[in-house]
Amino acid sequence: MVNEAKPQAQKKREASALKAKYMQMAVEKYKEEKEKVGGMSMDKVIQWAQSKCREESNGKEVQISKSTLARLEKGGKSIQEFNESKQWLFNSEEEILINQAISLAQVGFSMSRRGLEEHANMILKERLGDRFPNTGVEIAWASRFLEQHSDWLKSFWSKSLDHSRACAVNPYTKDAYFDLLRTAIYENDGEDAIGAELIYGVDKTGIQPGVGVCERVIRASGSKVQYQQWNGDWENISADSTDSVPPAVIYKGKGYQVKWNQENPLGLL
Questions:
Q1: Do 24 and 143 fall into the same domain?
Q2: Which of 81, 94, 159 is nearest to 124 (CA)?
Q3: 61 plus 111 within the same structural domain
Q4: What's the average model confidence in pLDDT over 67-81?
Q5: Last residue of a domain, which of 33, 50, 80?
Q6: Are 61 and 91 in contact (CB under 8 A)?
Q7: Are 67 and 113 found together in one domain?
Q8: Beta-sheet strands, E only, within the chain
Q9: 76 and 92 assigned to the same domain
Q10: Hey, which end of the chain has fewer CB within 10 Å, N or C?
């Protein structure tokens, strides 16, 4: 399989992270050398950091500014630290959000971009209170978040979980399911166990009402096809039911033509 080309924004972000890493190493090295008698000069420290970068990153080069090194050595902020101070979420909160998105995807309830924004809004509302705007994070925040954390999260089209059910009937998946169910009932994050009167049965189609069959969802980078439990809002008709529905014609095909519903007085469609 041919590897996908990295977006330019991701390349710039990786280059910036690489530069920040060896800039920090140069700062620490220069502080050590200043304590020594006859220690390395700033120019020598810069050369040392650049050489170390080439050795550890397959020949990649980084430019280390002498003035920036001197400023950081005196306690100044790096550009990365300045940018972090402007973003909505703290790094620890971003990590929580990433882990939440991955864990939900693993059990078939993947977040959409809107869901990602809603989770971010809840975190920020809890921390900022009335200072957080009612409109929530800005438009396209989720897209930027996914781009920024593309090493961990990717956006893909979901596939119905029902299509994989035939392949999922084995002892391992059954054990994993009941382990999750047992944890949810009896180990409810330190809360009381869920009572039997609060547990309801569902049909075999799924237990996530109101969600479309196929949508753009988020999962961990590098994982396989993302399945999603889909809408369980079906009206089931059985032979012993007193309900009746008009007769219908099921056509084979993916499209629907308007003329099929014309001249149809019996309401067959």
A1: no
A2: 94
A3: no
A4: 82
A5: 80
A6: no
A7: no
A8: 153-157, 159-160, 216-220, 227-228
A9: no
A10: N
- HEC per residue, 11-51: HHHHHHHHHHHHHHHHHHHHHHHHCCCCCCCHHHHHHHHHH
- Span between the terminal Cα atoms of the chain, in Å: 45
* DSSP bridge pairs for 159: 227
Based on the fold, state whether residues 245 and 148 are members of the same structural domain.
yes
The verdict on 227 and 146 lying in the same domain is yes
Q: Which domain holds residue 23?
A: 8-80
The packing angle between helices 113-128 and 141-148, to 10°, is: 100
Residue 49 to residue 30: CA distance in whole angstroms: 10
Cα distance between residue 115 and residue 122, in whole Å: 11
Identity of residue 94: E
180 inside domain: no
Look at residue 172 and tell me if it is in a domain: no
- Cα distances from 31 to residues 68, 74, 266, in angstroms, run 14, 10, 87
Q: Could you give the dihedral angle defined by the CA atoms of residues 167, 168, 172 and 174, in that order, rounded to the nearest 10 degrees?
A: -150
Q: Do residues 73 and 106 share a domain?
A: no
The predicted structure's pLDDT at residue 208: 44
pLDDT band, very low/low/confident/very high, at 97 (cuts 50, 70, 90)? very high
